[in-house]
Amino acid sequence: MVNKLVDRSSYDEQDERDEELMARTDIARKNIQAVYRKLSKEDLVLVLELHLCFREVIENSCARAIQCLSEFVDEIPKVRAAVILQQAKRGAMQRIFNDRDGKQKAKAETFMLWKDWHSGKTLHKSGAAFARFARTQHPEIESPTTVERWVRKWAAEYERNSH
């Protein structure tokens, strides 16, 4: 009779441990789900790839898993840069496509004017003079300062690409 009581109490202790473990697991699962909801699609892809690498650690040899992880870590900056570039291109295309006020068209045409000025086909005393000229050509441009900012950016890109 005493043995049965001892056995029963060990079962009760095991049940309590199991319930505590299940409660902790449930809390952890909810926390993970909350974090996943906050991740961007790109970060979620990175997490899933990392998860697969960890899974490989468990299922296969450690050497292969370490190689996989090191390759993955090396690729993170490239993947992030590609994602950012893709988002920027998508945003630019949407701005051009949704050009309701004509500013994107004016910017493109102003860029063509700048190329002519930069190559010497047209003459302007300064960047400010060019900006005033571009503003008169495109009334949708609200300020010559905007054109001056564009000119600085285009000149910097030209310098960067010419070297």
Topology overview:
Layout: H1 2-38, H2 41-59, H3 62-97, H4 103-119, H5 127-137, H6 144-162
How large a portion of the residues is in β-strands, by DSSP E?
A: under 5%
**Helical region count?**
6
Q: How many strand units?
A: 0
Q: What's the N-to-C terminus distance?
A: 91 Å
Task: Describe the protein's architecture and organization.
By secondary structure, this protein is mostly helical. It contains six helices and no strands. The chain has helices at residues 2-38, 41-59, 62-97, 103-119, 127-137, 144-162. Helix 4 packs across helix 6. It is elongated and about 95 Å long.
Structure described in brief:
The chain has 163 residues and is mostly helical. The chain contains six helices and no strands.
Structural key phrases:
disordered N terminus, mainly alpha, 85% helix
